[in-house]
């Protein structure tokens, strides 16, 4: 018996008014459907993923599958003319005793909790829906646009996906609907209810599990991706660092130093540079010479990390322009320099780059507006470059640690209770796991 998920991606995006279906629009460095697939790919309860796609965009979907490393995507099927037809097509080839989730491709924020609760509910019920309470009053109108009824909203829910079924039950519902030509249904649970085939249990959904339907939803989704940056504490084994060549800029103290020490514990060959040993990330020529020396000695460079940064306080009107330019040069242009000089070497090794942002990238902070804006720029840089680097197989990500006990933190904010701060060793471990992962274009959130 297997646990399946069918991802319905056969819509044409008419309501969004875009020239391509909404599931193929890119947000936060990836198409919406890639974000959705990854949720199920990473869930331990899912055995196989079936994607049902609009035939006109099947080659687009094939290209997405080719550039990713999905292990659970087993079938890519042409969809039908309606959602109902596409659901039934997805069910083909599944055993009646199997369990299946049916999910909209444009709901990329479905949580692990929802998925797990659906499978748990299927242990007792044959059909499961996901829904949330409604904060709005729902009215029923007649053909003259007059209110006919105002139902008690305490009994109303707003449906979401996934919907979960024993395969035999939902197959039977579809077959029965074909026999009497019943098509006025917008989801699969509606068929089970129509033919009274099973009780449908309702799992609590989440407000962030939105369906991206209209243009306004794209802006909301982009914001949600920012606020829900990845918490990646992956299973990449750090002994995979053995004999890897790592170059760290800004690595003589703080997080950079912790990455240096942690990587060496696992056998990595690590070079660390900073202003203290004559390497300034704002000096492009020096960076070129630095990497040439490392490559000449090691004949390869696998990973490059830039932790160099500065944090200065002050209202913009009271700060000297050279001071502002210096902060931008170190925090942003310095990162661009590091990335640019890295490309020839990482193209050869198909390696990775790691930059460092801050929680302030989501919202500018008074007195630290220049710092916040440079960190926001870094995130946009990472997201854009991740797509530019696809052909070279270079991965690039941004680490977003919460308040961390580092010399720069202490110099900028003075004494803070140490128990309230993240330690740099944990940031180092997550950073190295990220380098070893297949992730690219992501903001990796590190919390205590």
TrEMBL record:
Pathway annotation from the record: Isoprenoid biosynthesis; isopentenyl diphosphate biosynthesis via DXP pathway; isopentenyl diphosphate from 1-deoxy-D-xylulose 5-phosphate: step 2/6
Pfam families: adh_short, IspD
EC number of this enzyme: 2.7.7.60
Residues the record marks as site: Positions MEP for the nucleophilic attack: 153, 211
Superkingdom assignment: Bacteria
Function, in words: Catalyzes the formation of 4-diphosphocytidyl-2-C-methyl-D-erythritol from CTP and 2-C-methyl-D-erythritol 4-phosphate (MEP).
Family designation: Belongs to the IspD/TarI cytidylyltransferase family. IspD subfamily. Belongs to the short-chain dehydrogenases/reductases (SDR) family.
NCBIfam families referenced in this protein's UniProt entry, alphabetically: ispD
Protein name: 2-C-methyl-D-erythritol 4-phosphate cytidylyltransferase
Organism: Heyndrickxia camelliae
Gene assigned in the entry: ispD
């Amino acid at each position: 018996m297997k646990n399946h998920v069918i991802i319905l991606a056969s819509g044409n995006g008419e309501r969004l008014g875009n020239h391509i279906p909404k599931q193929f629009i890119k947000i936060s460095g990836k198409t919406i459907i890639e974000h959705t697939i990854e949720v199920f790919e990473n869930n331990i309860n899912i055995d196989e993923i079936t994607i049902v796609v609009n035939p006109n965009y099947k080659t687009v979907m094939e290209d997405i599958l080719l550039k990713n490393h999905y292990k659970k995507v087993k079938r890519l099927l042409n969809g039908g003319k309606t959602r109902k037809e596409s659901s039934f097509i997805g069910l083909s080839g599944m055993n009646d005793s199997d369990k299946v989730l049916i999910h909209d491709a444009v709901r990329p924020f479905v949580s692990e909790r929802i998925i797990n609760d659906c499978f748990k509910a299927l242990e007792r019920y044959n059909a499961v829906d996901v829904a949330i309470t409604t904060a709005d009053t729902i009215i029923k109108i007649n053909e003259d646009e007059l209110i006919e009824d105002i139902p008690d909203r305490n009994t109303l829910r707003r449906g979401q996906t996934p919907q979960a079924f024993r395969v035999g039950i939902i197959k039977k519902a579809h077959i029965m609907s074909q026999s009497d030509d019943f098509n006025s249904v917008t989801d699969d649970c509606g068929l089970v209810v129509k033919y009274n085939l099973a009780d449908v249990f309702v799992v609590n959904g989440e407000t962030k599990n939105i369906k991206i339907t209209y243009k306004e939803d794209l802006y909301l989704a982009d914001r949600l991706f920012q606020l829900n940056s990845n918490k990646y504490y992956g299973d990449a084994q750090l002994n995979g660092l053995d004999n890897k060549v790592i170059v760290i800029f800004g690595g003589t103290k703080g997080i950079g130093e912790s990455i240096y020490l942690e990587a060496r514990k696992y056998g990595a060959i690590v070079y660390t540079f900073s202003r203290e040993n004559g390497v300034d990330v704002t000096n492009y020529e020096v960076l070129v010479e630095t990497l040439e020396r490392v490559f000449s000695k090691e004949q390869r460079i696998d990973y490059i990390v830039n932790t160099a940064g500065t944090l200065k306080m002050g209202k913009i009107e009271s700060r000297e322009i050279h001071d502002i330019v210096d902060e931008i040069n170190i925090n942003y242009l310095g990162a661009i320099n590091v990335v640019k000089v890295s490309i020839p070497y990482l193209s050869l090794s198909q390696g990775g780059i790691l930059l460092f942002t801050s929680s302030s990238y989501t919202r500018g902070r008074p007195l630290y507006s220049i710092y916040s804006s440079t960190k926001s720029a870094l995130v946009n840089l990472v997201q854009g470059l991740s797509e530019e680097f696809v052909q070279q197989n270079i991965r690039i990500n941004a680490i977003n640690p919460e308040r961390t006990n580092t010399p720069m933190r202490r110099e900028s904010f003075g004494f803070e209770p140490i128990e309230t701060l993240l330690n740099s060793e944990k940031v180092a471990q997550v950073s190295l796991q990220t380098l070893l992962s297949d992730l690219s274009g992501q903001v990796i959130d590190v919390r205590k």
